């Protein structure tokens, strides 16, 4: 059985198709197709408050392409979720309905709490009984979650993200709000490890020296951030071989991860290869099982 997840973010839209694997009583998901396209919807919304006709046309074309890929893979179930850009757009719901009428793909515009819940459902499997601060930085928002003994103690979504910072459109006092929330919700008497999800931390982690297969240090993330910042946008693309839509947002994203880690007193960060799309796949699987 194959299932699919579509994640329409502020920077890019992703399609992941996974095969469901059964090993005795254990169920796992193997990625068989992954496509990412830089729609950059956040540029419209954070500057003008609405999606432009051009962005609507590009999103419609992309959903048509994703639908064809899902048909070729004979996907049995899928879900498409849109996050901060479409949920803050004054015409987001209207455009989602038109895309559904045109392509047959229903787009669920989810709030920050639901977004965090879907990510948490898969991230929790990478944790043990220690204290963790999960940091998920998207194009338009940052989700923070505190875990102890694999139980989520508290969570909060903030209107600050890589594209929003790039455009200079972060909400007033956003940095201070994050710092205050971390101070109130992290137990400073206990050691804490950060858990990072999102495309930018995955790229930073790939470039960094590792403590282990899935762990590095805040100092190393800072070193890579400063290294990348020393290159022009053109050189980031040509010399560092970063995608154009990654090259401009990776430094603002790194600033969020580093700042949150400093405020929390976290010296190490785990970067599992997981994200919203994986949480969507897991939910689709549960829905398909209910139907059978």
Automatic annotation (TrEMBL):
| InterPro entries assigned to the protein according to its UniProt record, in alphabetical order | ATPase_NBD, GppA/Ppx_hydrolase, Ppx_GppA_N
Q: What is this protein called?
A: Ppx/GppA phosphatase
- Report the residue ranges that make up the Ppx/GppA phosphatase N-terminal domain in this protein: 29-282
Task: Give start-end of the signal peptide.
Answer: none
Source domain of life: Bacteria
Cited CDD domains: ASKHA_NBD_PPX_GppA
Task: Cite the GO molecular-function annotations of the record.
Answer: pyrophosphatase activity
